[in-house]
């Protein structure tokens, strides 16, 4: 039997509806896929652009030289590196505290570390100790001093002391170690590392940290330029940005903070030295240029990425798309800080 005209019309209508639905769904899927295709294209572009290339820097069996290694973060990094099979050398000023640190590392890991004593401000003394230690594979410039005070009230000798230790001391260490590090990297064919301990106060200026922040911000410029100079020698630079950390000197430093500094910086979460050491060593082993140590630090690293080197295309993706939001958050923080300062001064005037 031949189909009726009604049946043919119904079948044609159903086919038209089905075709329209399929076309609509295809169009919708295409429209929905455009952002994903665009994002994928950006991710591919970032994977091509990021420099230097990803790297793995081995620790086991290699010479790790750590300044400020007798206490705090430096001691914690030394202990972790020794536990991972590194040949560890630590440098500090106090011979007695160095021996205590060696005993603590031996007790924790069963490994002996080499001890070297020098003031990092003394370039000749540093050069002698570095030469005596032998070629270095991983240099950790962890030394640092911190004396908070408003610049108006701070003695210039204290300012010079912080700059000399935090900045010039780092120059002295790198200058002394670099020639042999280059030769060592060429001889072994393995990547080497220079890591520099900065601070979150080296990413954002805070009331009462004028001199300290200046000495730590300078390390960023040192690190960025140095990475350009040593990348051809397979040496990789890392800048570590810890927050307030529970170290032997932290309690005393906290007592000296101006009242406003405590109000503004009091919300910043402190960390255990061993937790900072874990983050630092992890960043060093991957050659990460900016190494944050907590969530707040990660937000700061995105907000201040600027023209810094970036190995990870995923992190580059976050930086590219998170920059605008982090700028907005930064403005909110600045509004809060300036409001706090304004209210504090108004309260003082009314007393």
Describe the structure.
Pathway: Lipid metabolism; sphingolipid metabolism; Sphingolipid metabolism. The chain is an alpha/beta fold. The protein has one domain: Rossmann fold (3-Layer(aba) Sandwich). The protein has helices spanning 5-49, 72-83, 95-109, 123-133, 156-188, 210-230, 250-256, 259-265, 273-285, 295-303, 313-350, and strands at 63-67, 87-92, 114-117, 138-141, 192-197, 235-241, 245-246, 271-272, 290-292. Strands 3-2-1-4-5-6-9 form a seven-stranded parallel sheet, sandwiched between helices. Strands 7-8 form a two-stranded parallel ribbon. α1 crosses α11, α2 (72-83) packs parallel to α3 and α10 (295-303) packs across α11. The longest helix is centred in the N-terminal third of the chain and has 45 residues, at 5-49. It is globular. The termini are far apart. Mean pLDDT is 89; it is low at 1-14.
Major sheet: size, sense and barrel closure?
7 strands, parallel
Instruction: Work out the strand percent.
Output: 5-15%
What portion of residues is helical? 55-70%
Provide the CATH superfamily. NAD(P)-binding Rossmann-like Domain
Shape: globular
In brief:
The chain is 60% helix and 11% strand. It is an alpha/beta fold and 351 residues long. A 7-stranded parallel sheet has the order 3-2-1-4-5-6-9, with helices on both faces.
